Task: structure prediction
Amino acid sequence: MTNKKPNPSSDLDELRENLDRLTKLRQSLAERQARNTMPPLKPLGFIDLLILMVCFAAAFLAIIIALAAVFL
Result:
């Protein structure tokens, strides 16, 4: 069995390739994260708030009716 001495230049080349690969992966990950961000939310308009109020009122009335049906 012969023991080979490691070649430092090939190790350096391999490390450089790995570093290049990692930097490319980091860049692609940053690009993907930039693309996947949600757009900023717009404030609710008058119609949206009106719909929300009607829905909450309907839910409140449903709870009151259910409680009345149970206790009366």
In short: Residues 8-35 form the longest helix (28 residues).
